[in-house]
Write a structure and sequence with these properties.
Layout (H helix, E strand, L loop, with lengths): L6 E7 L2 E6 L10 H16 L5 E6 L10 H4 L7 H20 L4 E5 L2 E3 L1 H8 L2 E4 L4 E3 L14 H9 L1 H10 L3 E2 H6 L5 E2 L5 H13 L3 H14 L5 H16 L2 H12 L9
């Protein structure tokens, strides 16, 4: 792994990379540097054959408090062209995790606001501690409620009604409400948060790499499929592709022999 200034990255278990946003004194608020490092992280994880699943979390009491106020103070000074260029960079960093061909789990240990909220939305699975809080903070500082992909991702996770309310009001959504509306998969005790995320990551990593990759992609595509027929056609092609792999043969052999499969990604 390359060296990062705002992230801690390690591999605590086989096939799993954990990236921790590491500015705990600022509730892991994002700097322009952190955006750049998140984009580098996504690219590196995507190219790393050893990583099957990525877990994102925050150091200390927060997941990510959004854009750091020091960097935010420079926004009104930017020209429209400079702001647009920056916005494209920042949103690209966040949505890179949505595009990542490997599953991403967000272990949300505290406030997830603004761009931090969008980062949590970009994960495929969200597990929260009771201290987790979510809000579209951008609407509170004179910007819009849609930022870094939130207006696309949130309705697909919680539905239009909840998405409109959350994005228009900027109000805080607590962990219990987040679980009730489907914003997070589940809430676990704070001391169990990372272990729960790792347990889920291990269940995913135990499956064939291609099968996992195609599953993530087919869900993303078929959530907007124009018809059942179009969705099933893509599923059929994926199944045919996966059936021709060595991992499919290994999975069947391991099942018959009652042993864990040893997948190679081939």
């Amino acid at each position: 792994m390359v060296n990062y200034q705002t992230l801690l990255v390690d591999r605590p278990r086989a096939g799993i990379t954990v990236a921790t946003l590491n500015r705990p004194d600022r509730l892991n608020a994002m700097t322009f540097q952190m955006f750049d490092e998140l984009a580098r992280l996504a690219a590196e994880v995507g190219a790393d054959e050893r990583t099957r699943v990525l877990v994102l979390t925050g150091a200390g009491r927060g997941f990510c408090a959004g854009l750091d106020l020091a960097d935010a103070a420079t926004l009104p000074e930017m020209t429209a062209a400079a702001f647009l260029e920056g916005q494209e960079t920042w949103s690209g960093a966040i949505t890179s995790f949505r595009r990542l061909p490997k599953p991403v789990i967000a272990a949300v240990n505290g406030p997830a606001a603004g761009a931090g909220f969008s980062l949590a939305l970009a994960a495929d699975i969200r597990i929260a501690a009771p201290t987790a809080r979510f809000n579209a903070a951008f609407i509170k500082i004179g910007l819009t409620g849609g930022d870094c992909g939130s207006s696309w991702m949130l309705p697909r996770i919680v539905g239009l009604g909840h998405a409109y309310e959350i994005l228009l009001t900027g109000r805080l959504v607590g962990a219990d409400e987040a679980a009730r509306i489907g914003l997070v998969n589940r809430v676990v005790p704070a001391e169990d948060l990372l272990a729960s995320a790792l347990e889920t990551a291990e269940l995913i990593a135990a499956n064939s790499p291609l099968g996992v990759r195609l599953t993530k992609q087919v869900v993303q595509v078929n959530v907007d499929a124009p018809s059942l027929e179009a969705a099933v056609e893509l599923e059929n092609r994926n199944q045919t592709l996966a059936a021709g792999t060595q991992d499919m043969t290994e999975a069947m052999t391991a099942f018959i022999q009652k042993r864990p499969a040893a997948f190679t990604g081939r």
